[in-house]
Amino acid sequence: MKTASPFSFPVSPALAAKLAKLGLKRDSDLILHLPLRWEDETRITPIGELLPGQTAQVQACVREAKVTYRPRRMLTLIVEDDSGVLGVRFLHFYPSHLKAFQAGARFRFNGEVRGGFLGLEMVHPRFAKADDDTPLPAGLTPVYPTTAGLGQASLRKLIERALAAPIDETLPPEWREELGLAELESSIRLLHQPPPGCAQHALESRAHPAWQRLAFDELLAQQLSLATSRQAREARTTLPLPHRRRLTAAFVDTLAFELTAAQARAWQEISTDLAAPHPMRRLLQGDVGSGKTVVAALACLQAVENGMQAAFMAPTEILAEQHYRKLAPTLAALGVRSGWVSGSQRRAEREAAWRAIAAGEADLAFGTHALFQEAGNFCRLGLVVVDEQHRFGVGQRLALMGKGTEPHQLMMSATPIPRTLAMSFFADLDVSAIDELPPGRTPIVTKLVSAARRDEVLARVRDACVGGGQAYWVCPLIEESEKLQLQTAEDTYGTLVEQLPGLRIGLVHGRLKAEDKQSVMAAFQSHEIDLLVATTVIEVGVDVPNAALMVIEHAERMGLAQLHQLRGRVGRGARESVCVLLYETPLSELARARLKVIFEHSDGFEIARQDLLLRGPGELLGQRQSGLPMLRFADLERDVALLERARDLAQRCLRERPEVAARHVERWLGSRQAYSGS
After folding, report:
1. Of the candidates 248, 218, 256, 265, the residue with the CA atom closest to the CA atom of residue 310
2. What NCBIfam families would the database entry show (predicted)?
3. Are 578 and 472 in contact (CB under 8 A)?
4. Which pLDDT tens digit goes with each residue over 282-293?
5. Other Cβ atoms closer than 10 A to 456
6. In whole angstroms, what is the distance from residue 568 CA to residue 415 CA?
7. 162-to-152, 155, 298, 328, 363 alpha-carbon distances in Å
8. Same-domain check for residues 163 and 118
9. Is residue 91, in this structure, part of any structural domain at all?
10. Per-residue confidence band for 403, with pLDDT thresholds at 50, 70 and 90
11. Which of 308, 513, 558, 677 lies at 20 to 30 Å from 28 by C-alpha?
12. 272 or 2, which is more confident
């Protein structure tokens, strides 16, 4: 039995599978599958007028076609028109090509003109059979994103079929006029089929009013979806956890410092949320070392003093265990019982920990993803704290949320989120920012050093450690293989032991057993180790005030956020702190730009903004947004004004015309509405 096509025209299962790879599952997806670029095939340039470096289209007769074998196998053509002769080369070709290019056959060739050994030539131009009376296109020819087995010509025909039907306007005319936006239908049709004389530069720079309309609609759909998610969350109820000021005040009294104004402000915002009868979804962001953990501990204590449990989840065992070992003794003195769950625990230990949590004998559970991956249950989970939230996927967080009856949630990030990103992808969350560092933090001097000067860096490390200090030596990140990264760390450790005799050198990496990892870190913290060789497992959470020097090898391979996180491991004591970024040459343009940013800036918010400019939102969002559509047409830096207008209109739309909101979101997101209010 045939299944009905989701398109308005017949599509074979094989073709449907190819379209699905591009996210094209219905007519409206095809309509919004806009060109990557446009090619001007509206005119013919005589061969005699061609210039090297020019992209042009010629119409010519094949004079000669042959396969040559030097310097490699290729198909070479000599083609001509009334004004001159042109060489054409195909490095990859099929027998059918040779058969088609018979002497006397006429073709149009479109490509970049190069200066060749025997004169001007085109290499791998686009071509089509054409006689003198074959009409030229009336407008620019669109080039679409596609996939293997789906050619441009086929995709163009499918999009033309989808465009045969009228395109409904989703915005009321008065709103569109008020915002100064072009009509939707005319905008979409213009981008697919630009008319003669349409400015190609305005199209490709996305400055054309048609692009502005599409960018606005996309941002509006995103804002509507996130606002709907927030409304749904605020309509749900949960157990309020009012501030009783017993445990929290006692905890603040144990601190050797006063909360900064930014910490106090963030804590007040979180405390107010916890007291509300709706589930909190707050993001606490702050630079490396700004004191987020203390604020999170206060939130956990507010849950505990209301008779509820809290879960404190971190992405790595080193960080999760450090939170546990740092906070548990202080909390125990206040009568708060802590539990620890990790994947590397012996089975008996882990089962005992879960029994205590399930029985309510542990008020606060620390752990990694083991907290949600395992079958254990909480007795009365009231708050979930997720540290370094971008490391966890939506599904992972939801799994932990499922262990409680609508618990409050506090997410933390030491990668500050630029304002436009917060307005866009995090609009369903409340955001608190700790935007000042505690007093006494030593400024960190960043030095860029070529790997050719490695001996000078070794001498500096030796001097620092002999003088009573400690240092980190971070090994390069090798994303392709954890095994290779481990090998690199072990090789570096062996080399440094040889090159720095007399220094006590330790090694820590992700493959070490938990107890061995903890043992090495404890030895480093107690100054039994002078130099710690580490992979990027030390990126977050490690706090050794006496370590004032860090060397990062192959810094050019790392992202800005990671470099900033690593650098934040020093500058925690009174010594002058230095971070040496060793790099290999030659540098790519992106690597050079990243190193320039990290050298010139120490403010995490500015670094995050520059990162957004360099990479776009995808990587900055991390796994939190897995499953959510990235922006295809809007640019968060360029379209700030559109984003602000879309945010305002989304609120008005939901308030005044909810049916318009529903229709608009359906057109833009359809089945991809993954904003689940998580």
Report:
1. 248
2. PRK10917.1-1, PRK10917.1-3, PRK10917.1-4, PRK10917.2-2, recG
3. no
4. 999 888 778 899
5. 12
6. 11
7. 15, 11, 56, 62, 58
8. no
9. yes
10. low
11. 677
12. 272
Instruction: Answer whether 597's CB lies under 8 Å from 568's CB.
Output: no
Collect all residues with Cβ–Cβ distance below 8 Å to 659 and sequence separation of at least 6. none
Torsion over CA: 258, 264, 270, 275 (sign): positive
Residue 257 burial (CB count, 10 A): 11
d(CA 445, CA 14): 58
What pLDDT sits at residue 132? 80
CA neighbor of 647 nearest in space, from 231, 227, 229, 179: 227
Instruction: Say if 270 falls within a structural domain.
Output: yes
Cα–Cα–Cα angle for 438, 442, 448, nearest 5°?
Answer: 130
Please state the pTM of the whole predicted model: 0.71
- Structural tokens at position 518: 């903890």
For residue 476, pLDDT over 60 is answered with yes
Whether the CB-CB separation of 349 and 274 falls below 8 Å is answered with: no
**Which residues, including other chains, have CB under 8 Å from residue 519's CB and lie 6 or more apart?**
none
User: Domain total for the chain?
Assistant: 4
Residues 270 and 288 placed together within one structural domain of the fold: yes
Residues 154 and 99 in one domain: no
Does residue 1 lie within any of the structural domains?
no
Please name the residue that has the structure tokens 């994303």.
Answer: 479
Answer whether 496's CB lies under 8 Å from 530's CB.
no
Q: Which of 403, 430, 375, 30 is nearest to 192 (CA)?
A: 30
**With the C-alpha atoms ordered 617, 618, 620, 626, is the resulting torsion angle positive or negative?**
positive
CATH number, position 529: 3.40.50.300
CA distance 329 to 534: 27
Q: Which domain holds residue 321?
A: 247-434
Sign of CA dihedral 529, 533, 537, 540: positive
What pLDDT sits at residue 71? 83
Map residue 376 onto helix, strand or coil: coil
How far is it, in rounded angstroms, from Cα 401 to Cα 409? 8
Quick one: how far is CA 317 from the chain centroid? 23
Query: CA-CA distance, 425 to 484, in Å (whole number)?
Result: 35
Look at residues 434, 459, 481 and tell me which one is the last residue of a structural domain: 434
Residue 236 lies in a domain: no
335, containing H or E segment: none
Nearest CA among 119, 115, 134 for reference residue 54? 115
Alpha helices in 532-639 (DSSP H): 560-567, 589-600, 604-615, 617-621
**Alpha carbon distance 568, 68 (integer Å):** 60
Same domain, 427 and 453: no
Shared domain for 324 and 401, answered yes or no, is yes
Which H or E run contains 371? Answer: helix 370-373
CA distance 45 to 40: 11
With beta carbons less than 8 A apart as the criterion, state whether 385 and 308 touch. Answer: no
Say whether pLDDT at 310 is over 90: yes
